[in-house]
Write a structure and sequence with these properties.
Elements (H helix, E strand, L loop, with lengths): L6 H13 L2 H8 L3 H15 L4 E4 L2 E4 L1 H28 L6 E6 H6 L1 H11 L5 E6 L4 H6 L5 E4 L8 E15 L12 E2 H6 L1 E5 L4 H12 L6 E6 L2 H9 L5 E4 H10 L3 E3 L1 E2 L4 E9 L7 H15 L1
Parallel strand pairs: 3-4, 3-5, 7-12, 8-9
Antiparallel strand pairs: 1-2, 5-13, 6-10, 6-11, 6-13
GO molecular function: DNA-binding transcription factor activity; transcription cis-regulatory region binding
Keywords: DNA-binding, Transcription, Transcription regulation
Protein name: LysR family transcriptional regulator
C-alpha cells in the first residue's frame, strides 16, 4: 500500500478542522459519513498518527491533526497552482489575457495570481508563456503578450513597470558540502572563484548574479554547469554537482526539509525586485488591470 495520502483525504481532514464535524465535512465533499470515516482512518494508518479525536460532541483535530492539516493546505494550494498554470498554458492561443513570465515568477507566483483572478472571473481564459526575463519584453513589444513579469535587476527599456514582489538569491549546497562546516560567512571573492551551477544567460537570476558580482568588483561567476530552469539547477545541487545561486522561492521547501543548505555570504547584495511590465504609453485595462490588482493585494499580504 502506498504511503502517499490521497488528495480527497487531505481535503476531508482540512474540512474537519474548519467545521468541527466529520459529518459536516463529509457533506461538503458529497461523501457518506461511513465512507468519510474510512478515509480518515486510512489516512491515519498511512501516516502513523492519530489525527482526529472523535467524541459525541463532534470531531476535533488532535495536535498532530492540526499540524498535518496545515501542511495539507499548502499541498492543496500548490496543486491548485499547478492545475491553474497548466490550464493557462493550454489556452494561451485563444486567451483573453496573454501573460508572459520569466521562469521563476511563472513557477512560483503567477499560478497563484491567476488562480485568485479566476475565482472572481471563472469564465476568463488566461494564456501563459513561460520564458526568461530577456524574452518577455520582446513578446510585449511584438504584441504577443498583454502583460509580462520579469526578475531582471532593472526594468526593461521602453516598457512601463511596477514592482509586484521581492525576492532574494541564496547560495545553496548539498548537505555535506565543505561550505556547510564554515564558521564564518563565505566571502564574495570565494564565491566568484568557485565553480557554480548557474542559470542561462538572459535569465533574471543570472543577470542579477552577474551584476551583483560586478558591483562587488570580482567579475563574473565561474560556470561549472549552465542550465535553463531553476528546477534543473536545484536538482543538480541536490545531486551534489556543486553550489548554486538560486531564488529563495525555488528552494524554500528543500531548505526546510534539509535537502539543501543555505550558505551565508558577505560583501554582496542578492535581493531583487520582481516587476510587472507592459507596453509603454498604454494603461493596463480589463483583465490585465485586474491581474495587476491581484498582485498588489498579494504583495500587501506577504
Amino acid at each position: 500500500m502506498s504511503r502517499l495520502p490521497d488528495l480527497e483525504s487531505l481535503r476531508l481532514l482540512v474540512l474537519v478542522g474548519d467545521v468541527g464535524s466529520l459529518s459536516g465535512a463529509a457533506a461538503r465533499l458529497g461523501l457518506a459519513q461511513p465512507s468519510a470515516s474510512k478515509r480518515l482512518s486510512m489516512l491515519e494508518r498511512r501516516l502513523g498518527l492519530v489525527l482526529v479525536d472523535r467524541t459525541r460532541r463532534g470531531s476535533e483535530l488532535t495536535d498532530a491533526g492540526r499540524a498535518v492539516a496545515g501542511w495539507a493546505q499548502g499541498v492543496l494550494r500548490e496543486l491548485e497552482g499547478l492545475l491553474t498554470g497548466a490550464e493557462a498554458l493550454r489556452t494561451k492561443r485563444d486567451a483573453e489575457l496573454r501573460v508572459a513570465a520569466s521562469m521563476t515568477v511563472a513557477e512560483h507566483l503567477v499560478p497563484g495570481w491567476i488562480g485568485e483572478l479566476r475565482r472572481t472571473r471563472p469564465e476568463l481564459y488566461v494564456g501563459l508563456q513561460v520564458t526568461n526575463s530577456e524574452q518577455v519584453p520582446e513578446l510585449l513589444r511584438g504584441g504577443a503578450a498583454d502583460l509580462g513579469f520579469v526578475e531582471s535587476p532593472q526594468a526593461p527599456a521602453g516598457l512601463s513597470a511596477r514592482q509586484v514582489a521581492t525576492d532574494r538569491l541564496l547560495v545553496v549546497v548539498a548537505p555535506g558540502h565543505p561550505w556547510t562546516r564554515r564558521r564564518r560567512p563565505l566571502g564574495v571573492a570565494e564565491l566568484a572563484a568557485a565553480p557554480l551551477v548557474v542559470r542561462e544567460r538572459g535569465s533574471g537570476t543570472r543577470e542579477t548574479l552577474d551584476q551583483a558580482l560586478r558591483k562587488a568588483g570580482v567579475g563574473e561567476p565561474l560556470c561549472l554547469l549552465e542550465l535553463g530552469s531553476a528546477t534543473a539547477v536545484r536538482n543538480a545541487v541536490i545531486a551534489g554537482t556543486g553550489p548554486a545561486v538560486i531564488s529563495e522561492l525555488a528552494v524554500r521547501a528543500d531548505l526546510a526539509d534539509g535537502r539543501l543548505v543555505s550558505v551565508e555570504v558577505e560583501g554582496i547584495e542578492l535581493r531583487r525586485v520582481l516587476r510587472a511590465v507592459w507596453a509603454s504609453g498604454r494603461v493596463p485595462a480589463g483583465p490585465a488591470a485586474e491581474l495587476l490588482a491581484v498582485t498588489r493585494r498579494r504583495g500587501k499580504k506577504a
